[in-house]
Amino acid sequence: MSSDQVDTSGFGAYAGPVLRAQRDGRDVFTFEIADHHLNGADRLHGGMMMTLAAIVLGQVAKDAAAAKQPGAETRPLSVNCDFVSAGEKGDKVEGRAEVTRATRTVLFISGDLRVGSRILMTATGVYAIKEQDGK
Amino acid sequence: MKEPLPSPVTVTPPEGWRISELHDPFEAYVGPLFEREDADGTRIFGFIADERHVNERGAVHEGMMMTFADAFLGGAANRGADGKSCVTLSLQASFLADAKAGDLIECRTKLDRKTRAIVFVSARFSVGDDDVMTATSLWKVLGER
To answer: Looking at beta carbons, which residues of chain A come within 8 Å of B61?
Structure first.
């Protein structure tokens, strides 16, 4: 299964890497929990978990905007994360997200993070679509 | 209490601020983070964004903003729960404006409600006089029901 790294920006690369692969025709984002991603109780830090959700939802938003209009950029307006269960060092986390609705200017994205069949986090995001000239 | 964890880069706190003692490896990794007390004793938290924290548009990444929120809203929940350990149940962030590398981003928290088992905390994040993010959150007090 081939994969490529997504969100190679400063923080995406610093907190990641987050990889994207195709499985059953869908994008699956993967991330492995290392020592520096943990909290003081040796679980995946909530901030890192939300960062991962933001990267997955943000990438799906970006792809959806680009499919509608080449060169369009997206900007997060709101992200909501629910902490369903904890992740531990060495866990391989998988993220998936889909477009719930796309209007001309706004995208609604919904997704989750899992380890195996166990859900760590459910997340929704609302993104603004910006034209390339910054409107 | 264990020794605080070091951050990988050194940033001198602005005048009036001190470096927060961090015990979560991920917070130390993205830090240093700062804190100070206002004239009326209110605790204010801050960090200076650098190139590690930005997204591809050059704005501070929403993941970093939410990590900063998780760190200090959690502290407010913990104090609200009289020092008992709390875990995040839910956090919602609204992104009002971009923060940039070099900005000092400040966080002011508010304890909205506390029950025996659940704490509600909101916060406002600003750069200078401009709000850049608001967040609301729900915390579970461990061991309470």
So the answer is: 9-12, 51, 54
* ipTM of the shown complex: 0.94
| CA-closest candidate to residue B137, choices B79, B83, B92, B85 | B92
- Mind listing the domains of chain A with CATH numbers? 3-130 (3.10.129.10)
Amino acid at residue number A43? R
Minimum-distance CB partner of A38 among B25, B52, B94: B25
A28 Cβ under 8 Å from any chain B Cβ: no
Beta strands in chain B (DSSP E): 18-19, 34-37, 43-48, 86-95, 104-114, 118-127, 130-141
Using a CB-CB distance cutoff of 8 angstroms, which residues of chain B are in contact with residue A55?
Answer: 63
Residue B31 placed within a domain: yes
The verdict on B19 touching A (C-beta cutoff 8 Å) is no
What is the number of domains present in chain B? 1
In this complex, do A7 and B51 lie within 8 Å of one another by their Cβ atoms? no
Q: Model-level pTM?
A: 0.94
Q: Per DSSP, what are the bridge partners of residue B119? A: B114, B139
The verdict on residue B6 lying in a domain is no
Partner-chain residue, chosen from B52, B71, B91, that has the shortest CB–CB distance to A11: B52
Task: Give the list of residues 6+ apart from residue B118 with CB closer than 8 angstroms, or none.
Answer: B89, B138, B139, B140, B141
Radius of gyration of chain A (CA): 15
Q: Is B40 a member of any domain?
A: yes
Q: Chain A contacts of B67, Cβ < 8 Å?
A: 45-48, 50-51
Residue A19 pairs in a beta bridge with A5, A30
**Is residue B8 in some structural domain?**
no
pLDDT, tens digit (0-9, with 9 covering 90-100), for A95-121? 999 999 999 999 999 999 999 999 999
- CB contact, 8 Å: A35 with chain B? yes
Residues of chain A with pLDDT under 50: 134-135
